[in-house]
């Protein structure tokens, strides 16, 4: 029997995820059955179950894929020169998030994965891993902020990262659930709350001062 390549397995896995995403968006998560996923993907039940045992696992995998894209985009942004201000970083990310949250966007399913993590131990692990990975990236950004004099030398970077972490999920929830928030309005709020940047450095007393 010929060996199946890793590339083939990944293509098949992505085929299932794409089909499930279409079903979830078309019918809603709870109204979608695994049979719907079989039909949309054109694969047998056995082929699908080889990769995913339930809809919950599929949703978590979809959210993890989208989160991987977020981490890649964040990594590029936080290592940019000159260092983007918090508002500039959030502006870049919210434009991308909005594009990925349209009617067929992958990020539309992120809040569902978060809710599953509260009640499903199988979902909790992957979601926690994804979130801690993104929080670690915010810590990298906080470290660069400190290097640029935007934070006190003795700043607790873990605490800063934990606070910054909430910026993007906060936008996702308001954008998807409430629907009345523009990118520009959100970025303006971040700029007002976190007025860091080249025009503002942190003095020895921990207070902002002109360089």
From TrEMBL:
It holds the Pfam family TetR_N. This is TetR/AcrR family transcriptional regulator. Residues 33-52 bind DNA. It comes from the Bacteria. The keyword DNA-binding applies. SUPFAM superfamilies: Homeodomain-like (SSF46689), Tetracyclin repressor-like, C-terminal domain (SSF48498). Keywords: DNA-binding. Residues 10-70 form the HTH tetR-type domain. It comes from Nocardia speluncae. GO terms for molecular function: DNA-binding transcription factor activity; transcription cis-regulatory region binding. The lineage of its organism: Bacteria, Bacillati, Actinomycetota, Actinomycetes, Mycobacteriales.
């Amino acid at each position: 029997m010929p060996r199946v390549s890793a590339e083939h397995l990944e293509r098949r896995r992505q085929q299932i995820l794409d089909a499930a995403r279409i079903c979830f968006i078309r019918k809603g998560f709870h109204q979608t059955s695994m049979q719907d996923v079989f039909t949309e993907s054109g694969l047998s039940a056995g082929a699908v179950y080889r990769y995913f045992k339930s809809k919950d696992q599929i949703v978590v995998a979809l959210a993890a894929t989208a989160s991987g894209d977020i981490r890649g985009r964040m990594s590029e942004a936080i290592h940019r020169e000159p260092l983007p201000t918090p508002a500039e970083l959030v502006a870049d990310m919210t434009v991308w998030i909005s594009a990925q949250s349209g009617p067929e966007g992958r990020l539309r399913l992120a809040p569902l994965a978060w809710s599953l993590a509260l009640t499903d131990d199988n979902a909790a692990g992957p979601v926690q891993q994804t979130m801690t990975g993104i929080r670690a990236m915010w810590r990298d950004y906080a470290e660069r902020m400190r290097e640029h004099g935007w934070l006190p030398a003795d700043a607790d970077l873990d605490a800063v990262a934990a606070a910054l972490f909430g910026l993007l999920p906060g936008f996702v929830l308001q954008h998807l659930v409430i629907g009345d928030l523009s990118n520009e309005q959100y970025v303006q709020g971040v700029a007002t709350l976190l007025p860091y940047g080249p025009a503002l450095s942190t003095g020895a007393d921990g207070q902002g001062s002109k360089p």
